[in-house]
Protein: Acyl-coenzyme A oxidase
Organism: Lupinus luteus
Amino acid sequence: MEGVDHLADERNKAQFDVSDMKIVWAGSRHAYELSDRISRLVASDPVFKKDNVSTLGRKELFKNTLKKAAHAWKRINELGLNEEEALKLRTFMDQPSFTDLHWGMFVPAIKGQGTDEQQQQWLPLANKMQIIGCYAQTELGHGSNVQGLETTATFDHKTDEFVLNSPTLTSSKWWPGGLGKISTHAVVYARLIIDDKDYGVHGFIAQLRSLNDHLPLPGITIGDIGMKFGSAAYNSMDNGVLRFDHVRIPRNQMLMRVSQVTREGKYVHSSVPRQLVYGTMVYVRQIIVFDASVALSRAVCIATRYSAVRRQFGSQNGSHETQVIDYKTQQARLFPLLASAYAFRFAGEWLKWLYTDVTERLQAKDFSTLPEAHACTAGLKSLTTSVAADGIEECRKLCGGHGYLSSSGLPELFAVYIPACTYEGDNVVLLLQVARYLMKAISQLNSGNKPVGTTAYLGRKEQLMQYRSDVVRAEDWLKPSVVVEAFEARAARMSLACAQNLSKFSNPEDGFQELAADLIEAATAHCQLIVVSKFIEKLQQDIPGNGVKQQLQVLCSIYALFLLHKHIGDFLTTGCITPKQGSLANEQLRSLYSQVRPNAIALVDAFNHTDHYLGSILGRYDGNVYPKLYEEAWKDPLNDTVIPDGFHEYVEPLLKQQLRNARL
Ligand SMILES: CCCCCCCCCCCCCCCCC/C=C/C(=O)SCCNC(=O)CCNC(=O)[C@H](O)C(C)(C)COP(=O)(O)OP(=O)(O)OC[C@H]1O[C@@H](n2cnc3c(N)ncnc32)[C@H](O)[C@@H]1OP(=O)(O)O
Ligand SMILES: Cc1cc2nc3c(=O)[nH]c(=O)nc-3n(C[C@H](O)[C@H](O)[C@H](O)COP(=O)(O)OP(=O)(O)OC[C@H]3O[C@@H](n4cnc5c(N)ncnc54)[C@H](O)[C@@H]3O)c2cc1C
């Protein structure tokens, strides 16, 4: 039935004010209003229509993406949108495009690694999109190991130029988004060679295509690397391959904030740490954490609404069957994901603050918090994207068979999202970075270096080694201090055990390789502690709105106790809690699921996703699922004709042959 809210009863059950929760989710009233306005703008614009993208072939899809990107840029200029609004417009356009890499990596790389003069030269062009750039780091042979890149940039004293070259097949740049077909320029990462001496990997700005006819410049071989996972998904992006054959660029196109090459060919390293060459990745990883909460919230919104609409079993005397959301198993799979979406939102907010803080410090030449920023962005990127990717797939299963239909929106969301576990650093490789950071912090404990920031708890090593949880009743697990102490003790003990085992190796690097599997578990425990702590800290703030804080408290407890339940082995083997305390946590968890149940629909409404952005019949705001699914099926191109193409050619002769055979 059109116009009827099939979820109205569910919405009436809510015990909190949804409009206030929308503001908490968005981060502020300003952020909410902005997001609401831009999402409606995109939803009402026919150019941004997206319900047909999964039926388009690659070329049509790519053209459709170019059209949307150009239209987005036109609307941004016509409406005079600021950066925050433009970023939202990109989010709601919901189709990866070359502009992501231009604005998300090319421009930030120049801002972060270029000198003032370089910024003045390149940013005005990039900001007006008079040039379009990408981020060309990964090669066919190396992605994770950035120091292993093979592309060379050799200084030519005579001409005052660098010569970019791809000496081997494996040195071909491979993967950069926007590179394949569109970018005119790239920030290229290459080994700096001066007088046969290798100074390691540095960033260079290279022009790839002519600004007149868009053809590749001499010496440049360039193209798309081919179809990726899924139908539409990331295939709207021209991930590319690039080879240089002794391509010359002026010396001033090496990004020289971190180190410089003089006219005489002298290499000068400034006081800025070498790691700033990796700064763009830190910036993007922080954005990816925020995006993880968005991606997960979409899947959870779809699965929650559909779980309230879908009924199976339990009808008595002609009454309705049971809503599947009332099954405890459904709740135990769905509600921790709902809680995780909120948890990642607040972790993302905090990470944004951390990133802003470190950037301000860097401007003031204080580099002390850079390692913490690297470890936190790497670790939280890894944790949140892994959970979001698995969570989207779980939401598909939570929707049963219909979840597998394209029109559920979930297959497309999954296909477009999962590379987040790989790009901007493989999730395992990033956790190993966190582990190195933790081991370093522990090794410095004895030298009197007090750990700070997210590792401060390691400074209370003795106390945490003595810790025994004093939980005696299920409700004790609702106390934030009880939860934080248990998570701190577990993380500290896991890291300290790794450090102790590492000390048994004469070569620490051998030990690190041997113990890598344990180390990533310790790193995961540390990252989970950060997310739990940041959620709890958020709840210590003033949160207005009827019942809003109470709901968030429930979600926070679910997030923490679900993790405790899932990783019960860690908590028991480290001796932080007893089996009895573990089962009390589980008992509390069940009670928390019951508390969420009446609020579930309102909690996903608070994400404020438009039907356009969700792109899901199962997740429709009005819950009018069945008529719309039925209608949608008839729109499939296969249903354009009663008899499909190919029937007369291939199937009819076969049927006729069978008939003839039967008559003989
Ligand atoms: C029209 C509309 C407009 C709309 C606007 C649209 C805007 C859109 C914005 C959207 C943005 C999102 C786009 C997302 C798209 C993603 C596309 C994907 C891009 C990519 O994937 S780019 C390539 C990414 N590659 C990687 O991530 C590689 C991973 N590997 C590494 O990072 C490193 O090599 C390493 C960290 C694994 C190891 O490096 P290395 O061997 O050199 O290092 P060591 O282990 O020896 O460490 C040396 C010390 O350096 C520290 N370190 C390492 N990394 C960093 C860092 N990043 N920052 C600071 N410090 C770092 C280590 O900790 C070591 O320190 P120590 O003290 O010496 O121990
Ligand atoms: C959709 C997409 C978009 C991308 N966009 C860009 C872009 O715009 N620009 C760009 O430069 N790059 C881009 N990339 C490349 C991306 O950054 C790399 O693929 C990523 O960093 C992983 O590196 P890799 O492919 O070398 O994986 P590998 O390092 O080869 O990983 C393979 C396996 O080895 C494991 N492994 C590797 N090293 C270790 C280790 N030390 N210890 C334990 N296990 C290890 C990994 O966990 C993984 O299981 C993109 C990739 C994708 C998928």
